[in-house]
Amino acid sequence: MSFLEHLGELRRRILWSLLAILVCFIPAYYFSNQLFDFLMEPIRDNLPQGSTLIFTMPAEGFMTYLKVSIFAAIAAAVPFILYQAWKFIAPGLYKHERQIIIPFIFFGTLFFAFGASFCYYVAAPPAFKFLLNEYSSEYVKAFPSISQALSFFMTLILGFGLIFEFPLVIFVLARIGIVNSAWLRKQRKYAILVSAVAAAVLTPTTDAISFMFMFLPIIVFYELGILVAWMFGKKAAPVEEAGPPADGGVS
Q1: Is the separation of the CB atoms in 86 and 102 below 8 Å?
Q2: Closest CA relative to residue 119, chosen from 161, 149, 79
Q3: Buried-most residue among 12, 38, 139, 199 (CB within 10 A)?
Q4: Distance in angstroms (rounded) separating the CA atoms of residues 128 and 47
């Protein structure tokens, strides 16, 4: 396809993804109260005594529940979004390379769910406990805005979900021969630097605890990506050694 045809195909895939998010948004908004209570639980459980969540603008409550619904719709549409991403890159692959579409969608959805769950159950509670209690005192209390607290938490969850996709990305790139384990090992020092920058960008705050909770999984998954590339990477075709000439090598 030409460059403009590629842009048209990308536009088509984005529109289909947005349509899937819109379809998922309708039931998500219906259950937005329950979803909001669930998402705010790690924050509520770590509020200092006497503190509570608040909103300060008339429309903030309504807009916050819209954010909850959009976030839930994106999470629910992940399998379809991955399918659209695959449909965009599939025309550039060989037939045997296109056969990994099922593991791509299945494990992509599974890894995203693992990342979001890790953030919700493991990383977020101690981070919120530190952020909300470390600087509270008799005269200073935390009263987080529901909109800002939700945006902060959604950024963390989406960031962890994307980080957990790294082994899958390496799997796909290794299967089609773009990267291999040897190349990834050589780039390790650069990967650490890039990981630190990515963790700093993805972390909504500047505290060290949130940064480390984001940075360490990136490093772990980079090392796991090296293992994945070694196990599932495209093998180089063996080079056959030239045998002796048919006349016995006498010239």
Answers
A1: no
A2: 161
A3: 199
A4: 8
